[in-house]
Structures are given as C-alpha cells and as structure tokens.
Amino acid sequence: MKDEAGKKLMFEFQTLSSHLEKTLGSLPYDFFEISDEVREQVELVRAQLKRATERYRHRNPVVLSRALSQPIGEELDYQELGNICNIGQYLQPKLDKVPNINSKRRHLFSTPGFCELNGADSIKAAELADKNGDDTKKSDSVTIPDDFRCPISLELMRDPVIVATGQTYERSCIQRWIDCGNKTCPKTQQQLLNFSLTPNYVLRSLISQWCEKHNIEQPKGSTNGRLRKSDGSFQEVSGDIATINALVHKLSSRSVEERRNAATEIRSLSKRSTDNRILIAEAGAIPILVNLLTSEDLKTQENVVTSILNLSIYENNKSLIMLAGAVPSIVQVLRMGSMEARENAAATLFSLSLLDENKITIGASGAIAALVELLQNGSLRGKKDAATALFNLCIYQGNKGRAVRAGILLPLMKMLTDTSYSMVDEALTILSVLASHQEGKTAIAKASTIPVLIDLLRTGLPRNKENAAAILLALCKKDADNLACIGRLGAIIPLTELAKSGTERAKRKATSLLEHLRKLQQL
C-alpha cells in the first residue's frame, strides 16, 4: 500500500513540475512589468523544472505524455501559481488591473494543464509507468546515471567537486549556492565546516568513460584549469570561456542592440558563480564595461553597472575595477541613471568600499553627496543600498565630515520619525558612526535628534534601544550641555529600565549614561 501511495505522489509531482515549467514559460513579463532580476529568478526555477521533467520523460514517455494531454483544472489560478513560484505578492496587485481576467487565464495556461487524478487513476498510471520500462529502454535517448548528475541542477556533471560533507556537486552550482550565503550542504542539510571544493577526479574520469562508451559528446567550450592568484597559489576554475570571450568582444560592437544583449548576458553569467567572475575579468571585460557606464542606452547602462556589481563580489576584481577608473562613472550613474541603475551603483560603491583603501578614493569622488541624495529621494531599496554604502564609507574618519556637509542629517531624521519604522535600524547605525566625529556630534545635537532618541529608549525594539543609548552616550561625552538636555527630557526612567532589562551592550551604555547624569547632579 505504501508503494502505491508513493508512486501516486511521485507521479503527481512529476506531472505538476511539467505543467509549472510550461506555465512559467507563458508568463507575460512585460504586461506585469516584472523586473529583470525577478525574471532571472523565475527563469532559473523554470530551467530546473524543465530538467526534472526531461529526466522523467526519458524514463516514462508514454505516461507523461498522456498526463500532459489532460485539460487544466479550473481551480489552478494566478494566486496559486504565484504562491508556488514565490512571486504571488508581486503579481497579485497587478492582476486586479488585468481586463478580461478569464481570457488572460486561458492565455497564460494555454499549454496543456495539470491533470487532477483520483487515487485509482494515479496508481494505474504509476503501474503503467513500470510496464513501459521496456519501451523506455528501447528509446534512442540514454538515461544518465543518477550518480553522474549534480543534485542541484540534475544535469550531467562536467566538473564534479566534493564538499566538506563528502557529497559531490557540479562546481559552478555549489559555488553559486555558497556565494548566496548558504552554509549547509544542499543534499544533507548538514553544516559545512569549510567551503573548500575538492575536485572529484575519479568521478570525472568515470563520467568521461561513460560519455565515450555511449557516444555522448561532453560539453564544449569549457575550461578546467588553474589560475595563479596574487599570493602565488593556484585556484581551480571552470567555465564556458569561448562564450565569455565572444560576449566580451560584442561589448565593443558598433551595434547598440548587440552591446545591450552582451551586457545582459554578462550580467547573468557574473551573477551565477565565482568562476564566471574570474573568467569574465580574465577576458578583459572590466575596462570595457567601465567605458559603457556612460552609455546613452539606459538598459545597457543598467546591465553594465549590475555586471560590475556582480564582478566586484570576487575580492581580486575590486582592485581591477578601481584601476580601470570606474568610480567617477559609477557616481555619474548614481546621479543620473534610472532608479534600478542608481540602486545598483550604490550597491557597487558599498562592495568596493569593503577595501579600506577604496573608502578614501570613493569619498573624495563626490559619491557621498550622490548617496545622500539617493537616501533622501530614492526607492526603498535605493535608500537601503545608499544607507549601507554611507555607513561603510563613514567608517573612515575623513568621510564623516563629508557626509554631514552633504546634508545627511535631514534624511536620517526622516527615517527616525517615519511611522512605518522601515529604516530606523539603518538611521541609528549611521548616526552611531557619525557621533564619534566632532562635526557629526555637533550636527546631530543641532538637528534636535536627542528627543527622538529618548523616545526610542521608551518605545523602540531592543536593538533600537541599544543603538539609541550608544548614540546618546557618544553625544554626552565631554559635553555637559547635551548631558543636561538628556536629563531635562526625562531620560533617567527609560535608561534605568534599560540598565536592568536591555541587551548586554544596552545595559553597559545605559549604566554609563546614568553614572554621567548622577555626576552632573552632584555638581
């Protein structure tokens, strides 16, 4: 009975995967004004669904083709599709504006739909799948052994590597997984003790022998080799070097459309893996991309600045981007580009500023004033990108005065008093850095920030209370006027409560402030 239930469930999942893949291919991206980044994510989901479907189709072609010929169930609607694809929240507001919703549904789901099978039908279908095993064997297609497939992409591995848990993956797939901040093994969910990737030469040899035996051509245009790093050690890299070289060449094309398309492809490739970031830089793309930052074609400019952002994630590329003189052009995009380009320009400046020496260069370029402008008038994402970049730049003492003179206190005060509280954390973090600078300290006090900070001591979240206490303490050090102001505004009660029940850091800051206030009262 368990086998029958398992077969039923497996078959329904396989059928659903096929229909989801086809449905995602029919989404009218332009109609819904879906951004390129969301579209990329949807396409990645679709690609995985397609691989899974093709894998099952080779094994059970008759059953799956019969299932796919069934009409779509009426209960499958936009919202359900959105929930499955994790884009429901984005699509739903748009759906209310769609005329003739039923005809739109028919358009979207014009591909063969998901068939609802009752228990008996599902079991029969699964049994029929087993019966047709012999037919599958007679097929011209060759079934790839599961051990030769990457658990992430389900594709034949060309550069298998072993992770700390002993599992094997395609290098580019697991590297992308790690680049996204994941710290567990995708297959076992065990914590990765380290992120080293060890080439699985034995499996690579077995895959090569298997390909030769079945007359299967291994992927062309790939390179598997070692790249000398700046410290003299070697790093193994693999990727489609022929494609990358061709795209870099097209970046210099006279055709605007060809340049735009090449930039779009490089943006996508540079997002996928560290190896791609290395190979794109090795192909000489960075100076060409920097020149294209000033392109009059806005779409090209968006893709170029995002490509540079992606490339900058790899540490060695940061210096190459700076050497190419990218900062002035990035600042120009930050001032005059589309909102998406401005957001990614801010994120690029943050990435580059992670190297301490770059904080000085970026700060002197006029970037801080442009970031403050984005912080004040940008989209929510733009404001967050600007805040992150400004915080990191202001770690360098010389940039704190620049930020104050650029008028950073005005947007920070708006963020602190915004009833949605969407960026209070960011505002407090930046203020805590500025408060350690005399010019910043004076400006914060003049901006009537102290009453707002005391209010946060009473009503804010634990981390807000902690940061507010830290800023108040910085403002009061060697400044009797600010200390007296805090006492007059009734800070003693919330500080006393914080000293008892706050976080460890909050307790220390509140206790120190209370001590300063007691000393002031004794004078």
UniProtKB/TrEMBL annotation:
Keywords: Repeat, Transferase, Ubl conjugation pathway
Xref: PROSITE patterns: ARM_REPEAT, U_BOX
Reaction(s) this enzyme catalyzes, per UniProt: S-ubiquitinyl-[E2 ubiquitin-conjugating enzyme]-L-cysteine + [acceptor protein]-L-lysine = [E2 ubiquitin-conjugating enzyme]-L-cysteine + N(6)-ubiquitinyl-[acceptor protein]-L-lysine
GO MF, any single term: ubiquitin protein ligase activity
UniProt GO BP: protein ubiquitination
Ranges for domain U-box: 143-217
Record EC number: 2.3.2.27
A Pfam family: U-box
ARM repeat ranges per the UniProt record: 284-326, 325-367
CDD domains: RING-Ubox_PUB
Protein name: RING-type E3 ubiquitin transferase
Pathway: Protein modification; protein ubiquitination
